Amino acid sequence: MRRLFVTIFLWFWLTLIAVALIIVLLFARAGLGYRSLVRLSLHDLLLFSVAGGIFCYFISRYLTKPLNKLSEAAANIAEGRLDTRVDPSLRNRRDEIADLARNFDRMAERIEALVTGQRRLLGDVSHELRSPLSRLIVALSLVKQGPAEEAAENLDRIALEARRLDTLIGQLLALTRIDSGVDRGSPASFDLTNLVQEVANDGDFEARARNRSVLIKQAGACTVSGFEELLRSAVENVVRNAIRYTVEGTAVEISLQIGDSRALLRVRDYGPGVSKSMLSEIFLPFRRIANDNSGAGLGLAIAERAVNVHRGTIRAMNAPEGGLVVTIDLPLA
What we know:
By secondary structure, the protein is an alpha+beta fold. It has 3 domains: 2-81; 119-180, Orthogonal Bundle (Helix Hairpins); 188-331, Heat Shock Protein 90, CATH 3.30.565. The chain has helices at residues 2-29, 34-78, 88-91, 96-145, 151-180, 192-208, 228-245, 276-279, 299-309, and strands spanning 188-191, 213-219, 223-226, 251-258, 262-268, 313-318, 324-331. The strands form 2 sheets. It has a 5-stranded mixed beta sheet with strand order 2-4-5-7-6. A two-stranded antiparallel sheet has the order 1-3. Helix 2 packs parallel to helix 4 (96-145). The chain is elongated. The two termini are 50 Å apart.
């Protein structure tokens, strides 16, 4: 910050010289002698220089001190201390530096959340990949060393674990594409009602094999703007998750309500619901309810990312009569 300090002083002295030249020219035009100019201006110029120097010093300190604190905070973040925040005194100022400090803190919080999330995701992915790979290795060794009559069973196990790995990798790629914006194309308006009906029909076809069903209770006509296939994947993941947990003999209920500028999609099942501590975490990658190994825990995470892309919100709550209600709130086109 010393360069900024020196720059301010240089600008001050250049301004002082310019003022002195203007005074000389004015005296020359008025026909006054240089002796009278010296007698008149030396004392004033000295006072002006001292007062200006003091004023410039405090102005420089006022500007460079907070910038120096911001520079130190940025250096700490660059060194990996992501919990660094600027001095609270900077946010209490009444100038643009306070706005800069608040924006810096928001940026630091976002960076910390992203890096922490990526580290956690990397650990979760490593854990999720290790289990099926370990079972694959065991099954392969049994095929090589075990009796011939057990080979078919072990090959079936290999095929099952390979499918699980393929599904997991596909879901991870879907998360990556959503976050990076790859292959989205251009947003366009599409019929949300028609999309929900198609997803419900496909879900009902799958649910009937499990003695369950999918029922549309209400579907108002509406159009939204965005990426149709991306939003379709979000709705499909929510509906399939509901089919997985709803009790046999019950129906997953879907309703689409239209407000002034919002579309409210609700998907309700009649399953065991989710504990209160898990309600805020089920949209995070690899979060599953206790004793559930039926999936990798990425479906609702994909749904949440896809809804966020469409400037919407998704939340979950337990129904009073039992079961889980997932609500997707989207802006209309």
